[in-house]
Amino acid sequence: MVKERARILVVGGGYVGMYTALRLQRKLKGEIRRGEVGITVVTPNPYMTYQPFLPEAAAGSISPRHVVVPLRRVLDRCDVISGEVTSIDHAVRTAAFTTLASVEENKAAELLGYDELVLAPGSVSRTLPIPGLAEHGIGFRTVEEAIGLRNHVIEQMDIASSTRDPAIRDAALTFVFVGGGFAGVEALAELEDMARYTARYYHNVQPEDMKWILVEAADRILPEVGQEMGRYTITQLRRRNIQVLLSTRLESCAGRVAVLSDGQRFPTRTVVWTAGVKPHPLLAATDLPRTGRGRLKCTAQLTVDGAEHAWSAGDAAAVPDVTAAEPGTETAPNAQHAVRQARVLGDNIAHVLHGEPLETYAHAYAGSVASLGWHKGVAQIHGRKLKGYPAWFMHRVYHLSRMPTSNRKARVLAEWTLAGLFRREIVSLGSLEHPRAEFEFAAGGKPPHSPSDDPEGS
């Protein structure tokens, strides 16, 4: 049994953070009840986002509140702090963090001591110094970005429907997505499907009026599903009049013109950036060892190599893949590994507290599934290739099974059922981004939807 109170600090509330804390509060239930173990989770958002469902949330198939899991409800035996860890000094076992109250009180970062550290801040978008990207680019990693993009696309259709200027109309109906991985392909496919359906309710906007463009620097898309399924995906997208430009880079989007490396220029009001991720900047503010790519050096037991009582997994960690034939191979930074690593990580911390041997993380990659819109998809699972409706169905079954909590599973399933029985929602709630605009106008301020309210001009 645990003899002294052990303080466990979990940094991050994503896949690894939430599942590790969930595993710990189950494995150490008795110790927590007796006050022998305390678990603290520090995360910027008090919820975990199930990112594979973001494209469907953007398309309106799932309500945004159902693709997130409230941490305080799930981690009821943990102390959840809505804050951000800014630095970690593992030599003295302390982490500096700030909260919203810190800003209000004009206080410096507070220090939090710990005995065991789980560092799982995840990753952030990997951007490049492309002119205009910071001003006009739209990300696709959070539920806020997904719903904002949905509203933005429908608003562009409203603009195109109400203008007589052909240049404005053309720019509004041109949608450029940069990045041919899961996020880019699924987001583009789902939103194109949604916009195609929505166009039937506009008297002067037809699906063929819209330009959907996928820009990928490599010579293939969706490498996780294999070359054959990648080529199939390109064929299906092109049949929907979606331009797929391989071996092409975005050079600039300044002045609302997407300039590509092949010389093409597209006036556009929508540039969605999904071209990869990089380790969270917090990792550089620690004294823990990192790889050349900035991820934490970890062992197959999910400890940070050379740092006792420090653990990591997921996007932040370079974990050896013991199932790979080639030495030095690391596990892919995806949800499939992160969820499984979190369980082993939680078990291993419990083993350390109980003086038991550690487990080794070993999981052979099972395959991948991708949705390409309503009843369309591709998949490669255990070497078996699926496409069309079977792949789409497999995508839903797999991700529903991985969705945390039975509550969220039931809500998502209910929404899918209703979506199959009734028509899509085509409402844009872009005004949610400026909820006080109407009141400010009534109080004598500037009119709602003023261009100065929105630097994107949307």
TrEMBL record:
The keyword Acetylation belongs to this UniProt entry's keyword annotation: no
Statement: the UniProt record of this protein carries the keyword Metal-binding: no
Keywords of this entry: FAD, Flavoprotein, NAD, Oxidoreductase
Domain FAD/NAD(P)-binding: 7-341
Gene3D superfamilies tied to this protein: 3.50.50.100
Molecular function via GO: NADH dehydrogenase activity
Signal peptide: none
Pfam families per the UniProt record, alphabetical: Pyr_redox_2
Domain of life: Bacteria
Annotated family: Belongs to the NADH dehydrogenase family.
Stated name of the protein: NAD(P)/FAD-dependent oxidoreductase
Native source organism of the sequence: Streptomyces pluripotens
